[in-house]
Write a structure and sequence with these properties.
Elements: E1 11-16, H1 25-34, E2 38-43, H2 47-50, H3 53-60, H4 78-85, E3 88-94, H5 96-103, H6 110-117, E4 122-126, H7 130-134, H8 136-147, E5 151-152, E6 156-159, E7 165-169, H9 173-184, E8 194-199, E9 204-205, E10 211-212, H10 219-230, E11 234-239, E12 251-254, H11 258-266, E13 274-277, E14 284-286, E15 307-309, H12 313-319, E16 326-333, H13 337-347, E17 352-357, E18 369-370, E19 373-376, E20 381-383, E21 387-388, H14 389-403
Parallel strand pairs: 1-2, 1-3, 3-4, 4-5, 8-11, 8-13, 11-12, 13-16, 16-17
Antiparallel strand pairs: 6-7, 9-10, 14-15, 17-19, 18-21, 19-20
The chain binds cytidine-5'-triphosphate.
Residues 258, 277, 279, 281, 283, 310, 312-314, 329-332, 344 line the site of cytidine-5'-triphosphate.
Length: 404
């Protein structure tokens, strides 16, 4: 997950209702403040039975609002000022009672009153017993909220505090954070655009047990997918072997071999506005994949593996590029970085290429940071300083946006 201060200056208002999952919200607040957000909390009176207002006050470094009529600033109408202050509001855990109140326009406490006055995006994360969640009244109320533009973050299934098993667990903090970021941190400058990105290493089978691959972690492609989704793109991630979790909200196509990646990319090329190839594709594969495990002894293994070349996916995409499509490649080298990058840019018919050297400190496969130099078709060269892979992704997307 990203560590950059992407929520710097953003105001996040959290409404906590009376449910056991309220204990997870301090962790969310901590994560939000680390990303630079200012957080304020409103609790219902029943929420204060589960977690004390002091906990939220200490985590957010702000007073916590519980009671509609205990105004800390005499002249201020608190539910209105909090509503106006918010860049985004999350209600979590949202109880059946609070969902029902908001859906039906009932405003009789600090939280429901504020929710009614908020003009910023409102997110609602239900958490309750499965039967209550599945109850027709709750479901209809949630549908009403969705119709009115509230983003409902579905609960998970699992073992519930009441002892039942089923749907109703508050969505993970990671998910709540992701949706807050998506709703508030980025302009939606890729709205309506379809973007495909490849990530990770291809895996070329020698036999059912062994394979040839490379050290790619997939982090760079995954950060591009994440950033593009947060900026409003409809993202398809063609994903080889990766060491990271794939981001939420992107359509992920899992592949193993370069030939599978070729198929996944070329069959979708026409529908894409943007394609970014960050994957480390194996240039060669074993000419034959043994059907059974190759044994140390015996006739099957002759002491060498004959290789044949994989298709160059990016070169094919460059050759068949529809007009208006933006095609971006990566280039990983250990020597003659710029010279090789320029050749690949031209040979593969790219709009631009992001070149990085494996020998650079804080760059390369497994690192969270990267140092890339971007080469354009018009001959310009931009050397970016070392930065997180998420920030590199943002820079590349800024460039793509300018080309679109
Ligand atoms: N690429 C591809 N298909 C291949 C090889 C590479 O699509 N079979 C793409 C990569 O995803 C990357 C770009 O081409 O965006 C450059 O990859 P790189 O490995 O740096 O270069 P190659 O073209 O493979 O050339 P070489 O290995 O000789 O440096």
């Amino acid at each position: 997950m990203i560590k950059d201060k992407v929520l710097d200056g953003k105001h996040v208002l959290i409404g906590v209702c009376g449910g056991i999952a309220a204990y997870k919200i301090p962790d969310l607040i901590s994560r939000l403040t680390k990303l630079g957000a200012e957080v304020k909390v409103i609790m219902t009176k029943s929420a204060a039975e589960f977690v004390t207002p002091l906990t939220f006050q200490s985590m957010s470094h702000n007073p916590v609002a519980v009671d509609l009529f205990s105004e800390p600033v005499a002249w201020e109408i608190r539910h209105i000022s909090l509503a106006q202050w918010a860049d985004v509001m999350l209600i979590a855990p949202a109880t059946a009672n609070m969902i029902g109140k908001i859906a039906n326009g009932i405003a009789d406490d600090m939280l429901s009153t504020t929710a009614m006055a908020v003009r910023a995006p409102v997110l609602c994360a239900p958490a309750m017993n499965t039967a209550m969640y599945e109850n027709a009244a709750t479901q209809e109320n949630l549908e009403t909220l969705k119709r009115r533009g509230v983003l409902v973050i579905d609960p998970d299934s699992g073992h519930l505090a009441c002892g039942d098993s089923g749907k109703g667990k508050l969505a993970p903090v990671e998910t709540l954070l992701d949706e807050i970021l998506c709703a508030s941190a980025f302009s939606k400058d890729f709205a309506g655009k379809k973007l495909m990105v490849t990530a990770g290493a291809t895996v070329e089978a020698v036999d059912p047990v062994r394979f040839l691959t490379n050290h790619s972690s997939g982090k760079m492609g995954i950060e591009i997918a994440r950033a593009a989704r947060w900026r409003g793109a409809e993202v398809t991630l063609v994903c080889g072997a990766v060491s990271e979790e794939v981001p939420r909200g992107v359509k992920t196509v899992h592949i193993q071999s370069a030939r599978e990646m070729f198929e996944a990319c070329t069959s979708r090329q026409k529908e894409m506005d943007v394609i970014i190839k960050a994957a480390a594709v194996a240039d060669f594969r074993p000419a034959q994949t043994a059907e059974h495990k190759i044994k140390k002894e015996g006739a099957e293994f002759c002491g060498e593996i004959r290789l044949e070349q994989n298709p160059d996916i990016l070169a094919y995409l460059g050759e068949h590029k529809p007009s208006g499509q933006i095609l971006v490649g990566f280039c990983m080298e250990t020597q003659n970085l710029l010279e090789n990058a320029r050749k690949k840019l031209e040979r593969k018919n790219l709009d631009f290429i992001a070149a990085n050297s494996l020998t650079e400190l804080g760059a390369g496969f497994a690192a969270d940071t990267n140092t890339v130099t971007v080469l354009d078709r018009d001959g310009s060269i931009e050397a970016l300083p070392n930065m997180s892979k998420f920030c590199v992704a943002q820079h590349l997307l800024d460039r793509v946006r300018a080309c679109l």
